């Protein structure tokens, strides 16, 4: 579903991502962990086509993001740290607009079903998005992915700023989508939520993928220890 082949990006000679090789299959979520500047967001942006690689290739369902960006992103939904909604439109109106933008003309019942599945409270469906909490905005983002019938999710720090209840609900939705065959690549700082959501966890340091762990093979405490060891090795190498 997603594949990086020697995917690299430099900015004015500074390496942000260096030779990333990774695949994400159907029904799998790969979470990238790493400090600020490790390359997590750069990797997401390369798959989205927001950046052009210095070297290598980002592929979505076998299609090159660089040479065929429209086709490559056809089945992709993007959920950033804060979903951008039109504040004066309701959640329902935002969903209808973004669904139509993706070429999906859904009826009222179908749109409401997407909002229900995403967990937006029914009494909020027709309230202005400006009144929504961040957790509610993220749920509209999930509803947009559902309306689009997205097969792949690209998520950049979607848990940042969510309270524990909202983060738990968001992770539950991601697990349900994963179980239904959706593939995902998520950048996050949250080790514990990453373990809850991910099939595999990749640790990035200084633009390089230094480890990949099956989430089921480690406890939360083991993952934290492993992560801190990699970060400590990075500081030693820089010394």
The separation of the N and C termini measures 39 Å
The top-level CATH class is: Alpha Beta
Mean pLDDT across all amino acids: 94
How would you characterize the largest beta sheet? 6 strands, mixed
Q: Short description, anyone?
A:
By secondary structure, this protein is α/β, with parallel strands linked by helices.
Q: What does this 3D model show about the protein?
A:
It is built from 8 helices and 10 strands. By secondary structure, it is α/β, with parallel strands linked by helices. It has one domain (2-30, 41-84, 141-238): P-loop containing nucleotide triphosphate hydrolases (Rossmann fold, 3-Layer(aba) Sandwich). The strands form 2 sheets. The chain has a 6-stranded mixed β-sheet, with helices on both faces. The protein has a 4-stranded antiparallel β-sheet with strand order 2-1-4-5. The chain starts with a strand and ends with a helix.
What characteristics describe this protein?
globular; 8 helices; alpha/beta; Rossmann fold; 239 residues; 6-stranded mixed sheet
List the helices and strands and how they pair.
Elements: E1 2-11, E2 14-24, E3 29-33, H1 40-48, E4 55-60, E5 63-64, H2 69-72, E6 76-79, H3 91-101, H4 108-118, H5 134-147, E7 152-156, H6 164-179, E8 183-187, H7 191-197, E9 200-205, E10 208-214, H8 220-238
Parallel strand pairs: 3-8, 3-9, 6-7, 7-8
Antiparallel strand pairs: 1-2, 1-4, 4-5, 9-10
């Amino acid at each position: 579903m997603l594949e990086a082949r020697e995917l690299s990006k430099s900015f004015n000679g500074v390496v942000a991502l260096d030779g990333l090789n990774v695949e994400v299959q159907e029904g799998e979520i790969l979470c990238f962990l790493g400090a600020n500047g490790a390359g997590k967001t750069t990797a997401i942006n390369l798959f989205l086509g927001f950046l052009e690689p210095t070297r290598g290739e980002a592929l979505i369902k076998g299609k090159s993001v660089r040479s065929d960006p429209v086709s490559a992103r056809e089945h992709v939904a993007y959920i950033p740290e804060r979903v951008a909604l039109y504040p004066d439109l309701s959640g329902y109106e935002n969903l209808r607009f973004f669904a139509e933008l993706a070429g999906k003309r859904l009826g009222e019942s179908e749109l409401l079903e997407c909002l229900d599945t995403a967990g937006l409270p029914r009494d909020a469906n027709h309230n202005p998005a400006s009144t929504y909490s961040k957790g509610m905005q993220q749920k509209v983002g999930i509803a947009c992915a559902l309306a689009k019938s997205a097969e792949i999710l690209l998520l950049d720090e979607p848990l940042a700023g969510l309270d524990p209840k909202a983060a738990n609900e968001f992770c539950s939705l991601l697990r349900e989508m994963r179980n239904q065959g959706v593939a995902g690549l998520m950048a996050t700082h949250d080790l514990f939520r990453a373990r809850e959501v991910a099939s595999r966890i990749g640790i990035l340091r200084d633009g390089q993928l230094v480890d990949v762990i099956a989430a089921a093979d480690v406890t939360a405490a083991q993952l934290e220890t492993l992560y801190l060891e990699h970060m400590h090795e990075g500081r030693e190498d820089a010394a």
